[in-house]
From TrEMBL:
Its cofactor is Mg(2+). Residues 3-293 form the Carbohydrate kinase PfkB domain. This is Ribokinase. The active site is at D251 (proton acceptor). It is found in: Cytoplasm.
Length: 315
């Protein structure tokens, strides 16, 4: 059983500070880290750390940063043979600032991610062995994402669209997705609905349904998630934790959701699992280094007395 992730691979330059500088202002920060990142890389790492087989299709530069991120993915048991080495662009970079509340701002330089082309997707899928779930986001070219979803649909794969970041969203991708997972910002960007409670999340889900998306997970951060399936809905509460770094929390959630679907969980149970993994992620620094392993998830559930069946690797 395998999951395929199509998406971005970056180096994250993370600066920790008590407060954000005002425009034109210079302040002193606390710490800087150079960490592996990118939504595709983060989500593939989450899948691998949670014990499932995963391929990543992405693009990095012919540079040291590209070498480093590939080596890190390999160490985390992600299959990297479908990563393209671009001759034209440097490895993508995200410049991230995290303040004392653990909230973040990002400036993403896409670099080699823009060199992941539909032809690269076709070549990779031709060589791919059986894969049950496709997980995509919007940090690589839109036509590349669409082509991946089209081929996955032809192969009968379950397609999860994480429509992030908001700036990269293409509404055309909605027609190929089996489920979408927008957060509050992405929901507002796509359909103009401000989500702040269950009622507004339900309104957003029903609006997506009118657009042809029968299944959606409306994420509301500390307010939990609304899971909508063909007219039926359930609310999944957030798990309170002390946040350290929210970067990559949505990616950890997406990777865990893909694992849940691939191993036969129903959508609500998969979201409950993803909620646990996402909560654990924000307690640690680093979009990939902070993602918990399967053993850490099980231990957390036992310590917090969370009603979650002990999980086992499917392989």
């Amino acid at each position: 059983m395998c999951i395929t992730v199509v998406g971005s691979i970056n180096t994250d330059i993370v600066a920790l500070t008590d407060d954000y500088p005002l425009r034109g202002e210079t302040i002193f920060g606390k710490k800087i880290e150079f960490l592996p990142g990118g939504k595709g890389g983060n989500q593939a790492t989450a899948v691998a750390k949670l014990g499932e087989k995963v391929n990543i299709i992405g693009s990095v530069g012919q540079d040291l940063y590209g070498d480093n991120v590939i080596n890190t993915l390999k160490k985390n048991n992600v299959t990297t043979k479908f990563i393209k080495r671009s001759n034209e662009f440097a490895t993508g970079t995200a410049i991230i600032t995290i303040d004392q509340t653990a909230e973040n701002t990002m400036l993403v330089l896409k670099g080699a991610n823009d060199d992941l082309l539909p032809a690269d997707i076709e070549n990779a899928f031709f060589k791919l062995q059986e894969s049950k779930v496709l997980l995509v986001q919007m940090e690589v070219p839109q036509e590349t994402v669409i082509r991946a979803m089209q081929i996955a649909k032809e192969k009968g794969m379950y397609i999860i669209l994480d429509p992030a970041p908001a700036e990269g969203i293409t509404m055309k991708a909605l027609e190929y997705a089996d489920v979408i997972t927008p957060n509050r910002q992405e929901t507002k960007h796509m359909i103009g609905i401000e989500v702040n409670d269950i009622e507004s999340a339900l309104h957003a889900a029903r609006t997506f349904e009118k657009m042809g998306v029968k299944n959606s997970i409306i994420k509301m951060a500390e307010k939990g998630s609304l899971v909508y399936q063909s007219g039926q809905w359930e609310y999944v509460k957030a798990i309170p934790v002390k946040p350290v770094d929210t970067v990559g929390a949505g990616d950890a959630f997406a990777g865990a959701l893909a694992c849940g679907i691939a191993t036969g969980k129903d959508l609500v149970s998969a979201v409950e699992y993803a909620t646990i993994v996402g909560a654990l992620k924000v307690t640690k620094l680093g979009a990939q280094t902070g993602i918990p392993t399967l053993d850490e998830v099980n231990k957390f559930c036992e310590e917090k007395n969370i009603s979650q069946t002990k999980l086992e690797k499917s392989r």
